[in-house]
Write a structure and sequence with these properties.
Blueprint lengths: L1 E4 L5 H6 L2 E2 L2 H10 L5 E5 L2 H10 L4 E4 L15 H12 L11 H16 L11
Parallel strand pairs: 1-2, 1-3, 3-4
Amino acid sequence: MRVIVHPECPMPVVDAADESGSTDYIRRAIEAAEEPTTFAIGTEINLVQRLAAEHPQHTIFCLDPVVCPCSTMYRIHPGYLAGVLESLLAGEVLNRITVGPDVAEPARTALERMLAVRPATRPTPGR
């Protein structure tokens, strides 16, 4: 069995897993498996169910099918994001989350690293 989790899981979970990576990493790992494989996935259950339906040659299940720590991840979509960004432009902060410094400092470091990554430039069509 291959255990793959999102890196956002608690560190003991990430440490115990065989692999950790983004949603795309998890998807690609399952697609690349040539032999029927059992996957235990630590992420949002709707994604796990979709992957199981798309790859019936594998046994794919959620590590916690009852209460996934990412159980509301599926609610994030462009419409909601646009609404939150428009509110920010209007000076209104929606859904403010406050955490202590022990959480804020490592989170700030992670965000700064993500924002520092620059996508590769794409060639302009026709050039």
